[in-house]
Write a structure and sequence with these properties.
heterodimer, A: mainly alpha, 8 helices, globular, B: alpha+beta
């Protein structure tokens, strides 16, 4: 349930004015406007999906699905929220749906006694050990906490927008963020201890 | 140190987490992903009806796919028939001493292992670890060559019959019965072999080959010349005789006499192939150097104004399978077009079209070809391409845009009747304001030109719809001229 504050008009910020122009163009079917919209938001959607745990081999398709959804629903976009907020919300829904699909696939794979496919080789952008560590830890958070943490800490959105995207009151968003941070920190400490223990054991 | 509020504290875990979050903020997809994403999004079917139909078609297709998947899963278990997957899992094959062994690999490649040969089947092709193996490779489409690794060399095959042998002292022998093969070491093309030619690595040259790529590149550039440009030289050693020593330290080439006569007769063809090799392989550049094979390197070269270098990288990338290769094949045309070589660009995009008939950048390539031809004044070719596009792609988002180009081309030829038809298609299918506006005005102009009674009304309609439009002045002039005539 939303608090009344969530519905208040939020200034469009740095992308506000141009976003309105883009929106008008997109509604008129201007291909150039669509291209601008894609160029502006596709990298953001990609990054969000990556941090939200969508594997690299599914990321391109998921990003495309997000933009097709944007294309189909743009005429329903009333402009109450920022365009970015609306796109993030669509991306979050798609990421959750993709996670569900993955779970079903894994379940079916187990039922059919199929061997799981080998994990794909990490691409150049994923080579960083730190990023891999962060992805592993974030993947262990619950979907609600994960969403709030990713939007606030990585996407850098203000909490009122995070609350809008997560479709929860701001206080709930703060609370989820608090617990997500605490869990993440605890997991990071545990992981560091385990790595240090292994290092000692091997030496 | 970052200006992040959380996690605070100086302990190493917090510091590491802070850095990881900063890294995550910097994580961006590569250009190839974005470009492919846009191409796929841009070629989406237009309208809700298309969406509903695609849902229905998707439902039917997924049901069929599910049934097929079940059948495919059950079938091998019922009959215990080794399927292609099991074939792929053969990691290593060894022949018994007296006999030979034949194998059929993925893609219909036939391999015949001679006595005591050892061959390893890899994802990218095969590796001959010892002994001699004869291959027969069916023709493969460009960008998807079959690769045989032997020691540090790799033999790239488009479709041919040839043999690879790894002997004592790691000497590698390659002989060709049919077709053309290329022998590479890392990024350097060592030789391009025609039928009847044989190549071998001389023993003891390993360390030099591994450490002196630049020098080797120059030498092997010569070797390539010997294999292509200097074919008619009277070398008389047939392929089935022992290889003679060569002045080149790294490679030796021998030619079959009868084969040479045949090649001499088709010298033009050989030269054409040599030119093709110059286009498609980096090793034929004046000073061959290892090409960093990444789209970002090509983009950096382009940003630095070094278009030839970017082209070189993209040509190298285009030889590889997968999205990167596909994207590179398209980019070659774009760079050539930007450099004003529209004819070469059209050739490159047509090659892309041949190699990737259902590629994700196919529509982009079609549109680019039409635009390049139109700009170059190749009206007939452009019109053929445009009408073909309109016929084949009734659901394309780019239909209106192409119909407008077709209308402009017809108008340039003075064929106003066809131009009106094309502009009508553009007006009814495009949702881009500039396309519809231009089509509306030009259609009205064409109607006035052929003396159509509705022409002036169409112009007035344009002025009503676009009171501050781009063609306002011309439209007003035409209306006034028509009124004066009356």
């Amino acid at each position: 349930m939303n608090t009344p504050g969530v519905l208040r008009s939020i200034p469009s910020g740095k992308g506000g004015g141009p976003d309105l122009d883009i929106l008008a163009g997109c509604r008129h079917g201007d291909r150039g406007a669509w291209r601008t919209l894609y160029d502006r938001y596709a990298p953001i959607v990609h990054r969000f999906l990556a941090t939200f745990g969508v594997p690299p081999e599914e990321r391109d398709d998921a990003c495309q699905e997000v933009f097709v959804a944007v294309y189909r629903s743009l005429r329903h976009f009333r402009g109450d929220a920022r365009l970015s907020t609306w796109i993030y919300r669509i991306a979050a829904r798609h990421a959750s749906r993709a996670a569900r699909r993955r779970r079903v696939r894994t379940l079916l794979g187990n039922l059919l006694l199929r061997e799981p496919p080998p994990p794909p080789a990490p691409d150049a952008s994923e080579k960083s050990e730190r990023l891999r560590m962060l992805d592993e830890l974030v993947a262990k958070l619950s979907p609600k906490k994960k969403l709030v943490l990713v939007l606030f800490e990585i996407e850098g959105l203000p909490i009122e927008e995070v609350a809008k995207i997560a479709e929860c009151p701001e206080n709930t968003a703060w609370s989820r963020l608090h617990y997500a941070r605490a869990e993440l920190m605890a997991m990071a400490r545990k992981r560091t201890k385990a790595v240090a223990g292994k290092g000692k054991g091997s030496s | 140190m970052t200006n992040r509020g959380w996690p605070d504290g100086d302990d190493p875990v917090a510091e590491e987490l802070r850095k990881a979050l900063d890294d995550a903020q910097q994580r961006l997809p590569d250009d190839v992903s974005l470009r492919r994403g846009w191409a796929a999004f841009d070629s989406r079917p237009a309208g809700r009806r298309g969406a509903r139909l695609s849902w229905f078609a998707g439902g039917m297709a997924s049901t069929a796919a599910l049934a097929l998947a079940c059948a495919a899963w059950l079938w091998p278990r019922i009959g215990h028939t080794p399927g292609p997957e099991q074939m792929r899992t053969v990691a290593q094959t060894q022949t018994a001493a007296p006999g030979t062994q034949r194998l059929t690999l993925e893609g219909g490649v036939e391999a015949e292992l001679q006595h005591t040969s050892v061959m390893r089947i890899e994802e990218s092709g095969a590796r001959v670890e010892g002994g001699a193996v004869k291959f027969k490779v069916p023709h493969r489409r460009q960008g998807h060559p079959f690769v045989v690794h032997a020691d540090r060399y790799h033999v790239v095959v488009i479709g041919t019959r040839f043999g690879v042998a790894v002997g004592e002292n790691r000497r590698v022998d390659v002989d060709v019965d049919e077709g053309v093969v290329e022998v590479w070491h890392k990024e350097v093309l060592l030789a391009r072999l025609q039928p009847g030619q044989r190549w071998n690595s001389t023993p003891g040259a390993d360390s030099a080959a591994a450490t002196q790529d630049q020098d080797q590149g120059k030498k092997t550039g010569d070797a390539t010349d010997r294999a292509t440009e200097k074919l008619p030289l009277p070398s008389t050693v047939p392929a089935d005789k022992p290889v003679t020593s060569s002045p080149l330290p790294e490679t030796s080439l021998t030619f079959d006499k009868t084969e040479l006569r045949r090649r001499h007769a088709s010298r033009k063809e050989a030269r054409a192939e040599a030119r093709l090799a110059m286009v498609t392989t980096p090793a034929t550049a004046p000073a061959p150097k290892p090409v960093p094979e990444s789209p970002s390197a090509a983009k950096a070269a382009l940003a630095a104004g070094d278009a030839p270098r970017a082209l070189e990288i993209y040509r190298s990338l285009a030889q590889k399978p997968g999205p990167g290769g596909e994207n590179a094949a398209y980019e070659i045309g774009r760079i050539l077009n930007d450099r004003g070589q529209s004819s070469a660009a059209v050739t490159a995009w047509r090659r892309y079209r041949n190699d990737y008939p259902n590629g994700i950048l196919r529509v982009e390539a079609d549109v680019s070809i039409i635009e390049a031809l139109a700009r170059a004044g190749e009206t007939d070719d452009a019109l053929t391409e445009a009408t073909d596009f309109l016929r084949r792609r009734p659901d394309s988002e780019r239909r209106g845009e192409i119909a407008r180009v077709a209308g402009d081309l017809y108008r340039t030829r003075g064929d106003c009747r066809h131009a009106i038809g094309a502009y009508q298609v553009a007006m009814s299918t495009s949702r881009a304001r500039d396309v519809v506006e231009a089509a509306t005005f030009n259609r009205a102009g064409c109607m006035v030109k052929i003396g159509d009674s509705g022409g002036v009304d169409a112009l007035r309609g344009y002025l009503r719809s676009y009171p501050e439009g781009r063609f306002k002045r011309q439209a007003t002039d035409l209306v006034e001229q028509a009124a004066a005539k009356r």
